[in-house]
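User: Run a structure prediction on this.
Assistant: Running it now.
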Amino acid sequence: MSEKNRIGKKVKLIRESRKLSIEDVSERTNLRAEGIASIEKGELIPGLTPLIKIARVLGVRLGTFMDDQENLGPVFVKGSNEKDKKSVTRFSDRSNAVSSDLDFYSLAQNKADRHMDPFVIDIFPPSGEDVKLSSHEGEEFIYVLSGNVEILYGKDIYTMQAGDSIYYDSIVAHHVHSAGGPAKILAVVYTPV
């Protein structure tokens, strides 16, 4: 499996454990079967919205795709360093993306029965392609750690810098991207199962 998408194998495992075909998931999510197959094979960098739709159909949290094992007690994450970079999950909102727009580092990986997913996210400069707004059930909280970030939210634009935060309903069409160079954010995502 390609390292472009390390969660595809987990998506496939959960889908098969639910005895669902790719076509079943495609029909219930309104996503193309070919796209789901490409996610499972690790050929493309998936978008966050399609993964949230797949998670809902499979009856799991988004973070389940990133977990290796579940821990009932607290999950303690000791400061970020280079060895933690191996647990990155990459996302893109571009069609047929082979490079990442957002690198997610889970801060609650393996925490069982959690209701929210906290991440540190590296945001890379825009690729020049048109921005595609996405929406999904739930809420998001974003705190800018470094760089400049632009958030399109409905018809509004929020330009943020280090120290700024925003909390919004993610059912409203939105898009998070850097406003110039690389940026880093702390994000907490809640998606109901």
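The chain has a mean pLDDT of 81.
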